[in-house]
Amino acid sequence: MSDNNNHFDKNDNGNGKNSFQERFNATRFLKIQDWNLMRLFLITVGIFIVMSLLMPTKFPRVLNFQSMGFQMSEIGILGIAMALAMITGGIDLSLNSVANLTGILCSVILTRLAGPNVAEPQVGLAVFLAIVIGLAVGIVCGLLNGFLIAYVGIPAMLATLGSMTLFTGFAFVITKGTGFFGIEAFQKIGNGYVAGIPIPLIIFAAVAVIMIVVMNNSSFGLKLYLLGSNPKASIFSGIDNKKVLLRTYALSGMLAALAGIVILGRTNSANPDYGASYVLQALLIAVLGGVNVNGGFGKILGLVLAVFSLQFLSTGLNMLLFRSPGANFFKMFSWGALIILFMIINVVSERRKQRASIKKPKPA
Amino acid sequence: MKKFLRTNEFYVAIILILLCVFIGIKSPIFFSLQNVFDLLRSSITMGIFAMGTLIVIVSGGFDVSFTAIAISSMYITIKILFAINYEGSFLVAMIISAVIGLLMGLINASIIGFFRIPTLIATLGTQSLFHGFLLFFIGSKYINNVPDGMLRFSRSNLITTVTPSGAITGLQSGILILVAIVVIVYLLLKYTMIGRNIYALGGSREAAERAGINVIRTQFFIYGFVGMLAGIGGIIHGAHYKQGNPFDLVGTELNTIAAVVLGGALVTGGRGTVLGTLLGVALVVVMNNSLILIGVPSEWQKVVLGIILIIGTGIPAYQNMQAARRVKANLAE
């Protein structure tokens, strides 16, 4: 079967077939995943140790951990949203615009309902309403993406490119290009602590735990992996692919909205073009976390490790380079280098694995 | 003729004509020579980028790094020219910029060709890599003038006319470069071996390999060529704006991709024409510059662009899906 040689060919059904067989070889599957996670875990610990040795008085400090906790939560949530889309074999470029649109709508609701001279209960109600409506907006945006991808048949990249332009456009229409602000009560979500742990980090942890359970133990998770690794097989096993896609993008949109809420709480401002590089970062985290760009593979736990390692790296670099101008630009450079390096490592190790499996004599 | 009526180009042309007529009726300034010259001028760089993007999309790939390449080659070229105090012809600036672009394109090509990394991920990575490299290692300062050669080029016009109000306007000579590139890309895709290889690669990589096409060599040509075009487009952009802004362009790559896709290029590869791409560019340029003439407030323009993008990609995608279903139904009978 020469199909197996074209493992990276996007048009190739052999790819799916191959992964499908792998999935049923449960022990082998587990071993591969474990090895990926192990490697990632070692990288994370390695970066942590190196940074701690380089800056023993600054890096391994509670204060630093808290500030890193604030920074990594938003991008971690967006990364999980991106991973969901990628596991189905798609991509979601609109995440950032959904987050910004949500932040803007929330800030409109908050400033209208809970102005300066408003009693406490109404402020609470406004916060509650803002969160509920914000998440609903994310779901609606995600449903539009899912509809365009599953029912109209637009490739995920283009559909989310178009919807990204649309959502950013709406954000511009509402704000007329300026920034909007939140209210004080809402800032707790982004800047508060519970028992010394930043609230955004708690939200991120909750999302991660829920998604790990959903992906591993629910039928939805199983369908998602099956759809991503072989859409044809998934149809023939009685799964409604379109419905699964619709739900996945809705979920991904809701997570993007959650990130938008956290961003509004942390920065106390929302504008249409905040964090334009977040999409790239979310993609980087997903790829680094071991999510296969062709779909079908990827563990949320890997993604969490990737978020930690990237945060350690960028905070460490910022501390090391704080004297030289443009530490941010170096971060950009190093992230670009990292994504390429990691993809190359993945490809090379995959090839070696394949070569090894070809050499092995097949049982008669 | 009947066949032409069913092509994508035909639909895009109809939409473009309707849009132009509609804008022209609402605001007669639209058809004034000055406005037409302005539109043509602003379509020069996008047109050049679109030709590169067309080649990549036809080959079944995606390149989002060309804006970073363009801005980097432009900025580095301006720095070099200032450093050696060169005040000669624009041609030299263009060649330097094209070579820098070519080198960056070859970096893309080696990552994509040797390691078979999905093109979107690879070029997203190199976009960040190139732009980060430029800003950190080369410079992040805004240069508010350009060498004399570029200045002379930006002021040179092919045709000049005097508007009724007395101002002199003209057709910027960069349009010649665009025309030359369009002709080259047209001939390349239509009449050369490498052009047919690009279509074959986009149609089916496996089939192309089995037909004996050297895929890696073809990819090196594609991404190198696209990098070179980005370098040329970048330096023209710098000349037009008479400045070297290292934060410019990056982030606008989706506009160009949208233009190419609206022009009928199939994102899964194998299909796309130069004529369609030009129409797509014209559509996006007219929308970006002229919606304000008919009273669409500037903040609504992105919404309109998004809707047109979704409809423009949705109709062919839906038709494809229906066609695939029909084939399946026929097979089942």
Explain the overall architecture:
- The complex is a heterodimer of chains A (364) and B (333).
- Chain A is an all-alpha fold and 364 residues long.
- Chain A has a domain at 64-296.
- Chain A is 75% helix and 2% strand.
- In chain A, the strands form two sheets. Chain A has a two-stranded antiparallel ribbon. Chain A has a two-stranded antiparallel sheet with strand order 2-3.
- Chain B is mainly alpha-helical and 333 residues long.
- Chain B has two domains: 2-296, no CATH class; 301-333.
- Chain B has a two-stranded antiparallel ribbon.
- In chain B, a hairpin with a 5-residue loop joins strand 1 (157-162) and strand 2.
- In chain B, helix 3 runs parallel beside helix 8 (174-191).
Explain briefly what this protein structure is:
By secondary structure, chain A is an all-alpha fold. Chain A has 14 helices and four strands.
Shape of chain A: globular
Name the shape of chain B in a single word.
globular
In the predicted model, the low-confidence regions of chain B spanning at least 5 consecutive residues are none
Question: What percentage of the residues of chain B does DSSP assign to strands (E)?
Answer: under 5%
Number of domains in the coordinates of chain B? 2
Distance between the termini of chain A: 16 Å
Quantity of strands of chain B, as a count: 2
Give the helix proportion of chain A (percent range): over 70%
What spatial order of strands do you see in the largest sheet of chain A? 1-4
Order of helices and strands of chain B: HHHHHHHEEHHHHHHH
Most extensive contact = A-B, 54 and 51 residues
Instruction: Please identify the structural class of chain A as seen in this structure.
Output: mainly alpha
Listing every helix as H and every strand as E from the N terminus to the C terminus, the arrangement of chain A reads HHHHHHEHEEHHHHEHHH
Tally of contiguous helical segments of chain B: 14
Strand order of the largest sheet of chain B: 1-2
Query: Structural class, judged by helices and strands of chain B?
Result: mainly alpha
Oligomer: heterodimer
| Helix content range of chain B | over 70%
What low-confidence regions of chain A span 5 or more consecutive residues with pLDDT below 50? 1-24
